[in-house]
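Final paragraph of the annual report: two paired records, presented back to back.
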Amino acid sequence: MTLAYDDLGPENGRPVLLVHGHPFDRSMWRPQAEHLVARGHRVVTPDLRGYGTSESTGTKTGLDVFANDLVELADHLGMHRFVLGGLSMGGQIAMQLVQDHPGRVEALVLADTFPGLDTPPAKQARIDTAARITEEGMHGYADELLPKMISKQTRATRPDVEAHVRKMMRNAPREGAAAALRGRAERPDYTEGLTKIAVPTLVVVGSEDEFTPVADAELIHRKIAGSALVVVAGAGHLPNLERETEFNEALSTFLTRIRFTS
């Protein structure tokens, strides 16, 4: 599988691989890529299979498939060990990757994500939504989702962020987004596996996140020994875009304080 990606910064910089959520693309991480590159990091931001300009295959994409794609990309780029960050579905893919490919991740960033299983109604809603967007496309779905994606404060004060988020969601390829929803509905429970994570971990969440509220981040923080937790005030589900200064500061502080082995 060939993914579209940006590979920014010095080739010998500390590698950071950032994984976007649903239904977004790699432009979601632009503020973080610019911030980290300016500090000497090498930042790789891919479009996941079926998103952005990466091709789509099949009608169902499991999180293990996404994780394997990312490891293949890292191999292609010569990144044996790397910092791995993911938001929302990207965070779940990160949890899957750490589980399936131990030793590849030397530090972990989990933002606005949830380790547990969907309830039966939530699982069915993913399957129903996949059918809907396959038939209707992304516009109506995106417009319904937007008010929950970002906080009321962000919508009132950051029209640039709202426009960017809406554009990403509307432009997401319907087939790829639907395949991911079907696969995500069948994901495993990562909760107890979190206790086995032994790499430095930063957990971030927006204080106003409706999809994965602060309590979900606190659960992850409790399960991963030694992890750090940052709550970004005033942000919803996308604090990296809504409050990029605060998010970037948390990320930089984390990367500066941890000791790397490679």
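The closing record of the year follows.
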Amino acid sequence: MMQHQLSIEARLRPEILERILRVVRHRGFQVCAMNMSSGENSDSINIAMTVASQRPVDLLSTQLSKLMDVATVHIQHQTTQQIRA
């Protein structure tokens, strides 16, 4: 499996983290690491997430961008390191 790092900025809503994790799971990705912090204003959050899958990360990024409260999704870098299953 390939690892990918994503940076997500979203509006702070009680359900936003659940929605993001649901999309990650439904698209066939596994969360390896995640860090969430408050954004510059109190109405936003920044999520740094490392996910793993053999699927193209662009598919996940596109679906996350479609979520109502997600402002931006950036693919930080794609790790070519192979993970043994």
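The radius of gyration is 12 Å. This concludes the annual technical report; the extension proposal builds directly on these records.
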